Amino acid sequence: MTRGKFIAFEGGEGMGKSTQARLLCDALKRRGIEVVATREPGGTPGAEAIRDLLLHPPGEGWGPQAEALLFAAARADHVQRLILPALERGEWVVCDRFLDSSRAYQGAAGTLGDDAVRRLHDVGSAGLLPDLTIVIGADSAEVSRRLRARDGEMSDAIGGRDSHYHASVNAAFDTFVEAEPQRFLRVNGDGTVEEVHARLLEALAPFLAEAAR
Ligand code: TMP
Questions:
Q1: What is the pLDDT of residues 64-87, one digit of tens each?
Q2: Which atom of ligand 1 is nearest to the CA of 97?
Q3: What is the whole-number distance in angstroms between the Cα of residue 41 and the centre of ligand 1?
Q4: In this structure, is residue 1 part of a structural domain?
Q5: HEC states along the chain?
Q6: CB-ligand 1 contact for 71 (6 Å cutoff)
Q7: Among protein residues, the one whose CA lies closest to atom 6 of ligand 1
Q8: What is the pTM of this model?
């Protein structure tokens, strides 16, 4: 049995990741590939419960260390119970956010730093990395418009952080792509949903051809 491929979608808020992840799953299924669509934080009952704790924290909220540990705990459950079993069955996994979100949000924009986030991932998930990570980036005015339309006044504990925090998140993703170009595919998220999907499929063609060999 050939192990399935693991693709993650990453980027800051309002980049259209979730829509593009869903469209990619549909496109892969049309090619006859079995795909599991999932998300982080979440994807299993335990990790979805942790998601709720993270996005709507009780009391005065989590400190940076507790927040990073909760993301790592949710990821550990997700990796062990859903992602690895699916890959071992030969299915592909398309995940809306993964480790690089923790590196960007908790490590770079937060106070934890990259080494600590990676150490938590080594402990929780044996350092598992996606075969390919697609980073969607988009024009900031368009992103603000999408976010207003999506969230109204109801942002969660992390989405509702100030613009400096989110600018650091976006800058961190750019740094990751520059540092490890072989691990990432950066796709411009400007334009209509269909335009971005077409751009993404074109950029993904070499990866799909290689996987089909
Ligand atoms: P979502 O809105 O893309 O579903 O993600 C929920 C929020 O959680 C979003 O603001 C990004 C944030 N997040 C982190 O801060 N660290 C992480 O490791 C992950 C997966 C998400």
A1: 999 999 999 999 999 999 999 999
A2: 20
A3: 6
A4: no
A5: CCCCCEEEEECCCCCCHHHHHHHHHHHHHHCCCCEEEEECCCCCHHHHHHHHHHHCCCCCCCCHHHHHHHHHHHHHHHHHHHHHHHHHCCCEEEEECCHHHHHHHHHHHCCCCHHHHHHHHHHHHCCCCCCEEEEEECCHHHHHHHHHHHHCCCCCCCCCCCHHHHHHHHHHHHHHHHHCCCCEEEEECCCCHHHHHHHHHHHHHHHHHHHHC
A6: yes
A7: 41
A8: 0.95
